[in-house]
Write a structure and sequence with these properties.
The protein has a domain at 27-60. Helix content is 49%, strand content 12%. The protein is built from four helices and two strands. Strands 1-2 form a two-stranded antiparallel sheet. A hairpin with a 2-residue loop joins strand 1 and strand 2 (15-20). It is elongated, with a radius of gyration of 26 Å.
Length: 99
């Protein structure tokens, strides 16, 4: 596949920005919705896609979030500092699965 890079340079607040053209294959209904949304927000579809792609980069660098279900369980069990949780788990599982 022969790829051709189309590069345009714009002056934005005295900052030179290089843009590269990107071709996407998207369902027609999605394109229609994206154009309507972009118009409503006063932005171009390209700006929306760029913003979304930038958000992925920033999300990837964040620490993974903990689900609300896990957060609700945190601190539910209080163990003494001297307890051996592996041994306690082993004993509990042994009792549960005794024949």
């Amino acid at each position: 596949m022969n790829e051709m890079n189309n590069i345009r340079i714009f002056a934005v607040n005295n900052i030179r920005t290089m843009l590269t053209k990107l071709t996407l294959s998207v369902e027609q209904s999605v394109i229609k919705s994206a154009k309507a949304y972009a118009k409503q927000k006063g932005k171009s579809v390209s700006e929306l896609v760029e913003h979304y792609l930038r958000s992925l980069k920033s999300k990837a660098s964040e620490t993974p979030s903990v689900s609300p279900q896990v957060l609700a369980q945190m601190g539910a069990v209080k163990l003494p500092k001297t307890s051996n949780y592996k041994q306690a788990l082993s004993e509990a599982l042994s009792k549960q699965y005794q024949p």
